[in-house]
Every structure is written in C-alpha cells, then in structure tokens.
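Suppose a classmate hands you a notebook page containing two proteins, each written out with its sequence and a corresponding row of structure tokens. How would you begin to make sense of it? This section walks through that situation. The first entry is reproduced here exactly as it would appear on such a page.
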Amino acid sequence: MRNFSLIYVAAFLLSAMGVWGCSQQKTSAISAKVTELETHYAKLEDEHRSLQVHHDQHRKKLTQIENQRNAFAADKSVLEQEKAELAKQLEQISRDRATLVKQVAQRTQERDTAQSNLMQFGKDLQALAGRVEAAVNTNSPSPNAAIIPASRSKTE
C-alpha cells in the first residue's frame, strides 16, 4: 500500500510542477498571439463574406447572361426563319424580274416593229399625196383615173 500512495504523491507532485511551469510563461506574449489570431480570423471572415457577396453577384450576372443567351438563341431561330422566308421572296422576285425583263424586250421589239410600220405608212402617205398633187396639177382629161397607193403599185 505504501507503493500505491507513493505513486499518488509522485503524480500529484508532477501535476503541481506542470501547473506551476505553465503559469510561469509570459501571459502578454500569449495574449498578443491570441489577439493577433483573432484579428487574422476577423479579416478572414470579412474576406469570406466579401467573396460570398461577389460570388452571389457573379451568380446573378451568370444567370442574366444565360437568360440573354437563351433569348438570343430564340431570336436567332426567329431570325433564321425570317432569313429563309426572305431568301424565298428574293428568289421569287428574281424570277419575276427575269420574266419582266423578257416582257420588256418583247414589248420593245413590238414597239420598234410598229414604229417601222408607221414610218413606212407615213412614206406611203407622202408618196400618195405627191401623186394626188401631181394629178391635180396636171390637167388630166379623165377624172376617173385610178389612184393606187405606192405600197400597192407594182413599180420595180
């Protein structure tokens, strides 16, 4: 039993010496270190909060950009449809234009033909008028002389 109480006494002395040794340290250095760690921790918390705020702002911006991209994709599909419709209209207008160019060429040719016929008719009228005038100016004994237009006369 004596050994048993000797162990208790030794443990008690060892504990007392440990407590006395720990209390001998400079408390100001420890408290300074604790304050420094608390300040550092406070700074880290502030940085964490600001990073969370920035993260939330970036998340909102990302959501807005995704919505704009989706709207752009929808607009793009609408624009693609409009582009296809306009291409069809352009093709139709091009065909109509080609048809109108052909019609204008035909009408121009018809006009030129009518103009040349009209000029020929005018020449024939002038020739006829000249013949009538010559017949009136000359005293022809027969008033029943036949007047034949120049276009129908057989002059070779």
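The notebook's second entry, a different protein, reads as follows.
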Amino acid sequence: MKRILLLALILSSFLLPGCVQEKKLPAIKVVFMHYEIKGQHIVKIKEVKPAFITKKEAPTLYPWYSTPFPSIVLFAYDWRNGKLQFVTPSTCLPIDTEGDNITAYVGFKDPKHVPKKGDGILVVIQVCDRTGRVLASDRAMFVWNVSD
C-alpha cells in the first residue's frame, strides 16, 4: 500500500505541472507584408485583432527611446475618452524580414494599459533605417472586442 501511495505521489509530481494551464497575456496580433524592392521598402498591414498569447510567444518590448534601428517597428495607440493614448512599447523585427504573411504581436507593458472593450485601437508599423528615419509605414484601426 505504501508503495502504491509513493508511486502515486511521484507520478502526480510529474503530471500536474503539465496539466496546469499557463495564463495567457493580452496582445495585438498584426499580420502584414514587407518587401524591399530595389532599395524601396513596401509594408502593408493585412489584419489586426486582439489575441491572447503565452509568455513564450510574447515579444520583446522596447521603450520608444531605446528602439533598435534599423528595424520594422510596431506599436499601438488607444482611442479612449476622445483622445489617442500611447498604450504599447515598441515591438521590433529585423529590417530584412520579408514575406506576404508575417505575424507579429504587440504587447502591453502593464495590465492597466490593456484596452477596454469597445476602445478603438490604432496600430502603426514603420520600417526605419539605422538613424530611425521612416522608410515606409502603414496603419490600421480596429475595435478591442475583448472583456478583461
């Protein structure tokens, strides 16, 4: 009986961590295309929507004053109480990232910056050179339709 109890305890210590679900973090999913053709950058947002991601999927967040250049920079504003408020730090991808369906996530530094249901969100994507000069950009709006 003691062996069965000991075996059950050992097995549960291995099985339980896998059964506990990891908390998902709110984010903005951005699907876009980016190409550099003869030195000209072309960027176009195809889709923006709320998403919930694991900590492993969470992007590295950069404050505006330490964004690494050159890069593809994504960030968002929240249209709340009649004015735009900056709500996300920058998310950056290498400038040589190219393709038709690139997916990136824009995260929130703090839970208090997560939009409220019904807020309008303006997502901005910029391709910047090594000095931070914008070579190409696009933006898209959507309504945050997720409750906290």
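A careful reader of the second entry would note: The radius of gyration is 20 Å.
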